[in-house]
Amino acid sequence: MLQVAGIDTFYGETQALFGVSLEVGAGEAVALLGASGAGKTTLLRSVLGLTPARRGEIRFEARDITRRPTHEIARAGIAWVPDDRRIFPALKVRTNLALGRKRSGFKSWSLDDCFRLFSALEYLMERDCENLSGGEMQMVAISRALLGSPGLMLLDEPSQGLAPKLVQDVMSVIARMKDHGVSVLVVEQNAASVLKVTDRVYVLSQGQVVHQGASDALLADAALRKELLGT
Ligand SMILES: Nc1ncnc2c1ncn2[C@@H]1O[C@H](COP(=O)(O)OP(=O)(O)OP(=O)(O)O)[C@@H](O)[C@H]1O
Ligand SMILES: [Mg+2]
User: Fold this and answer.
1) Domain span at residue 34?
2) Which residue, of 23, 134, 189, 193, is most buried by count of CB atoms within 10 Å of its CB?
3) Closest Cα to atom 25, ligand 1: which residue?
4) Which CATH number fits the domain that encloses residue 134?
5) How far is the centre of ligand 1, averaged over its atoms, from the C-alpha of 29 (Å)?
């Protein structure tokens, strides 16, 4: 579904990604791990065309999207939940969600589908977003992205700032998106949790892929996890 082949990405003259290659298969959930500053967000931004790759190639559903404008990449079926979530605080939940509605060539998502994923969402619809908790805000951000009916969901640190119970809720949502046929690429600090709900994992260090493999293998190998992630 997504093929990133040998991309170099820069901020001005500073190179942030060095020949990064990564794939996400149809219906697959893939974790992207690495220390702060490793280039995880930059990789998502490169896929979305927000910080376009200077060299290399990015394909989505076999179509070359390298350096295409972001709106065109979004329309092709790639959704993004950024680390700061970007909810409009002055607007109601219902209005924030309505802004996400889009057609795509993929399975279309309705509000009812989102209510099935997040049972509490239905009762928040008339609330102003500025009064939501962090967990509720994340629920709205993910639902808004799903209402765009994506084939691939990019999540940047979805469990950041959430209480442990809510971290588990976010992880189970990743598993359920996958069950609904949405491919997922998720950046996380919470390695142990995300490895349980993903199929494969890539680890970035200083802008390069230093490990790739099955999530359960890395979960089972405490020594390798310590070496790669320090945890
Ligand atoms: N807007 C920017 N301008 C210049 N350099 C940047 C910019 N954004 C990121 N960088 C640099 O690019 C490198 C990769 O940053 P990136 O944000 O992708 O890391 P990350 O893995 O997402 O880290 P974190 O876990 O802290 O979110 C870092 O060295 C960072 O300082
Ligand atoms: Mg980041």
Assistant:
1) 26-38+75-229
2) 193
3) 36
4) 3.40.50.300
5) 23
